[in-house]
Description:
By secondary structure, the protein is mostly helical. The chain is about 80% helix and about 0% strand. It is globular. About 50% of the residues are buried.
Amino acid sequence: MRDRDSTSAAVSRGRLLILLAAVCWSTSGLLLKSPPLRALPDVDRGPVVACYRSLFAAACLLPLVSWRTARVRLRMMPMVACFAAMNLLFVSSMAYTTAAVAIFMQYTATAWAFVFGAVFLKERVSRGNLLALSMALIGIVWIVWRHWSGSRLFGVGLALGSGMTYGGVIVALRGLRDEDPAWLIALNHAASGLVLLPWVIARGPAPTTGQWLLLAVLGVFQMGLPYLLFAKAVQTVSAQEASLLSLPEAILNPLWVWLVWGESNSIATWIGGGFILAGLGLRFALFRAARG
Length: 292
């Protein structure tokens, strides 16, 4: 009985950590749409921001790594590759479409995480998670359909790619749950930044003082620390549930951008967001009650 209570408490803490990480992640649009970063050329903004925010995140996480247990294993490579691709694709998509469209398209990751978790980790797909997934996909498809236009097609494609690779990150972290979370997240960010660094130095514009400050905030508070919380959480929370619990980011992200920078979104965005939150709420209200 005591072991069961301890496990339940650990899962509850993991859920809270994911929700906190989602709130921190949701500030990406607020920062990326800020005038200093929007001053960067569209074609350069994605690689420059993705590179430097990753390096700032790695710098803040490295002191937290338990170096006695840190190791590089071949099975970490898919995680690193997915993370680097996700980082670049998502930041780049923000330059070509609205924060709402970019973030909701990235959250097709819920579907990819379910599929990857079932295939590679042999996780059971529960009825509650299927309900939440179905409603989330209805909301996402609704938003994409209402916002689809030729001028935003490229941004939509980039965001879709970020969604698939984000699903890969979720499942990879779950599969590596026995490793030091700080090491995994620091490795992801360091590799993501270092891969882009030669290109950025060769042709990317040098950031101004204000841009450096925003890049540091992006790296430390919007990327590094939230991913550490998430990596700790998936040690006890399944990949399917983790992907669902992080969905509030998709609602808060365009909300912050609208409140601060006035980037308007149609009612379709909020209808779609309502489907996503309703699915998440029903999954925990109805199916948790049924288990009880």
